Amino acid sequence: MKLKDSKKERAIIDQTLDIVYETGIAGIKMSALAKRVGISPSTLYVYFENKEDLIVSIGLRLLKQINETQETTDARDTSFEQKFRAMWMDMLSFMLDYEKERNFLDQWKQSPYFDKVSLDAWNDHKKVNTALLQEGRETGIFKSLNNEIIHAVGAGIADQVVGLVKQGSLNLDESTKSYLSGIVWDALKK
Amino acid sequence: MKLKDSKKERAIIDQTLDIVYETGIAGIKMSALAKRVGISPSTLYVYFENKEDLIVSIGLRLLKQINETQETTDARDTSFEQKFRAMWMDMLSFMLDYEKERNFLDQWKQSPYFDKVSLDAWNDHKKVNTALLQEGRETGIFKSLNNEIIHAVGAGIADQVVGLVKQGSLNLDESTKSYLSGIVWDALKK
Amino acid sequence: MKLKDSKKERAIIDQTLDIVYETGIAGIKMSALAKRVGISPSTLYVYFENKEDLIVSIGLRLLKQINETQETTDARDTSFEQKFRAMWMDMLSFMLDYEKERNFLDQWKQSPYFDKVSLDAWNDHKKVNTALLQEGRETGIFKSLNNEIIHAVGAGIADQVVGLVKQGSLNLDESTKSYLSGIVWDALKK
Amino acid sequence: MKLKDSKKERAIIDQTLDIVYETGIAGIKMSALAKRVGISPSTLYVYFENKEDLIVSIGLRLLKQINETQETTDARDTSFEQKFRAMWMDMLSFMLDYEKERNFLDQWKQSPYFDKVSLDAWNDHKKVNTALLQEGRETGIFKSLNNEIIHAVGAGIADQVVGLVKQGSLNLDESTKSYLSGIVWDALKK
DNA sequence: GATGAATGAGCGTTCATTCAT
DNA sequence: TATGAATGAACGCTCATTCAT
Fold this sequence. Notes:
Strand content of chain A: under 5%
Largest sheet of chain A: none
CATH superfamily of the largest domain in chain A: Tetracycline Repressor, domain 2
Distance between the termini of chain A: 65 Å
Structural class of chain A: mainly alpha
Oligomer: homotetramer
Largest interface: C-D, 33 and 34 residues
Number of strands of chain A: 0
Order of helices and strands of chain A: HHHHHHHHHH
Radius of gyration of chain A: 19 Å
Low-confidence stretches of chain A: none
């Protein structure tokens, strides 16, 4: 009796991320995906019920993974500014390291494969690091903005920076990262 | 002999923007589009060579249109801060007013219909308002950042704000807009 | 502008009846059907929405057709026995003449393509000739059976006779038909 | 070494009959069948060579079984009418008791799985009770009909009655059964 | 110019059967 | 014997595009 090969599942997911990165989520063709993985199209259906299940499963799995990764990043014992800027830099690094994953999530979110269930998981995922932002507000360090706007500023700048790095217009060394985190800080602090 | 009906062309474009807004760029189906416009599928091919031509033509036309619109926004005679913040608020308003157009451009950019030619036009389009940013740098008011980063800060925050407004989490009255432009200003000024 | 070809639709239906007669309703393959008709598989979808629509449409159309045909068979001015036996013989002839149609309806009825809507149409169709049976009961000529049983006797015998003729065990000349109608009459009369 | 498990074989056959009863012979899917039995799809192939073998084996086995069961039903010492009507009522009861089996045979007969070999076995099976019918003809009690027509009358009526009972239009108590057997008798007797 | 029928290429999916253990 | 993964050969269906009028 053959056992399900977890390497195969891994390969399917990786290739899917690559395809979405190259051609968009609409570019996923089950047969092309199978060919890239080196299996028969029907074998895909051993691992995922159908195309929708493939996409949604990967999306949910990525959200879970990201949450697990990020939870470990805010344990420091320095000033609030240092903690906050470190967190933002971590986020930026993360976004660069997991570019394909982020790209998949972005495309998934505005695709027809993104439904009610996915939305719940998505909202969970956005709550990460809310605690730190909350602290910034309550201690009167931040402007009196709601968390969503605070998050928007951090995420918006990071998004664009990632875009610049991706297209080669910006080289992100440590000092640049630090400099950028200063910008975010200036934007939010009173 | 009848000429191409420019109202019909307008209707095709409008319906395309709507479809992309509702279902994504991959949701464009020539027959469905024709039905929405109230014409036959084959008539579409009188106005556009094929699907790719339809999408690319719309994309290029939007880019051109946007440039024309934005050029008129910076004629004021007040302080630099006021001019800059006004420009940013204009940009924000513009992004909200032309939501469907922006959405089309976003989706187009990361679709297989976005090619070399489109990229050149796209880069042109981003140069808008560079002059003002340049002024900010040269007079030593802004941090010593290159224009791309300055643009990234403004655009990133605006992007996220638009997202919040779209999903109903933020009500954008004049005072909020002004408040937000202050954040951007704080981020960039020395 | 091409017009829908009603001969093509006719041909599709005829070939479908043939296929069902040869291989059963489960033997309908859209591509094989198209090949037999001499058109492309996709052209089938111009005339019918999908496989289910094809089958249900044919079924409903046959039911309607049969009702229209049968309504003209009972106008005679002879004794009740003669009228009844003539009606039964007509029914028998009809069943033999429209063998493929009957076969289609039989198979349709116990297929997954037979739904609520179909059932209503089906029940309408069975009401045919009820008037004559009713007369037989009310005048005290028939045994005191409900119409369903009376119908069952006539139809059951006719069914089996058709089976015998089809498999070549019985040659159905006029005298045999008359003889058989006598059996049915004997079964039902008091 | 384990032997083939006859309980497992029994379960496979039972589930197959159920599936055919529920969804038609075209609804047999090897994997679904396996799941219902509680075994692996591949285990089915230990008991039957392939899908055709499964169906044909079940069909032939049922035919054999039915013959064995029916042979014991005509041992009575009463009048010929009573014997005949008793036989018919037994047949009717049998048809109701073994509804799933009969349904399987009906569907099998007009499926692509019904071949030459099956036809021979089928014809054997129809010879049952011929002796009794023969006696009816030879003693001049029956109309001078060949056995096939006599059988057709009995079977046709029984078939339809079973249909009525199945769809709930007829409640088959003892007196109704007797009444119906009278109809059959009237149809055949001189 | 305008149309609706017609089509070929291709996609997602199913399923009987075999493979490897 | 028993298994679950793996697969190839189909099948139903879609859709951008062209044909014929």
